[in-house]
Amino acid sequence: MTSTYRVTGMSCGGCARSVETAIKALAPAAIVNVDLDAKAVTVDGASADQVKQAVDDAGFGFEGAV
Amino acid sequence: MTSTYRVTGMSCGGCARSVETAIKALAPAAIVNVDLDAKAVTVDGASADQVKQAVDDAGFGFEGAV
């Protein structure tokens, strides 16, 4: 199931890669797409709790599903 | 003990914060200082293994102590 979350604090491609890698560290099979302009992270294959944990640990702001 | 590591792939303040937060997720008491221009991360209170794990999980490049 694909879900999209609002994630704040990402300002460049390095930030986007960081969020993607952090999610995949917790859910290796996840498919992650980051839209920097929309502050949106779309994830297939990880739970909302995993995404929140990964985003928190990576230092960005998890603001829930959109 | 303070150690300095070379970390590649950080290009903005969001990246720097991400690395700092990832290290503190593994070593909560660590003191972390990131120098973006020097690609250097100085850490007190975390092992090199912890720093490597955190940097890897956050999607940046750990290149060892400098």
Radius of gyration of chain A from CA coordinates: 10 Å
Total E-strand runs of chain A: 4
- Name the quaternary structure: homodimer
Major β-sheet profile of chain A: 4 strands, antiparallel
Strand order of the largest sheet of chain A: 2-3-1-4
CATH topology call of chain A: Alpha-Beta Plaits
Q: Note the run of SSEs of chain A as H and E.
A: EHEEHE
- Most extensive protein-chain contact, per-chain counts: A-B, 19 and 19 residues
Strand content of chain A: 25-35%
As residue ranges, the low-confidence spans of chain A are none
CATH class of chain A: Alpha Beta
Helix amount of chain A, in percent? 25-40%
Distance between the termini of chain A: 14 Å
**Tally of helical segments of chain A:** 2
Going by helix content, strand content and strand pairing, the class of chain A is: alpha+beta
List the domain count of chain A as a whole number: 1
Average pLDDT of chain A works out at 95
Give the overall silhouette of chain A: globular
CATH architecture of chain A: 2-Layer Sandwich
Question: How does this structure look, described?
Answer:
The structure is a homodimer of 66-residue chains. Chain A is globular. Chain A has a four-stranded antiparallel beta sheet with strand order 2-3-1-4, covered by helices on one side. In chain A, α1 crosses α2. Chain A is built from two helices and four strands; from the N terminus they run βαββαβ. The mean pLDDT of chain A is 95. Chain A has a single domain (2-65), classed as Alpha-Beta Plaits (2-Layer Sandwich). By secondary structure, chain A is α+β, with helices and mostly antiparallel strands. Chain A has helices at 13-26, 48-57, and strands spanning 2-8, 31-35, 40-44, 61-65. The first copy, chain A, starts with a strand and ends with a strand. Chain A binds chain B through residues 9-15, 17-22, 25, 56-60, and chain B through 9-15, 17-22, 25, 56-60. Chains A, B: GO terms for molecular function: metal ion binding.
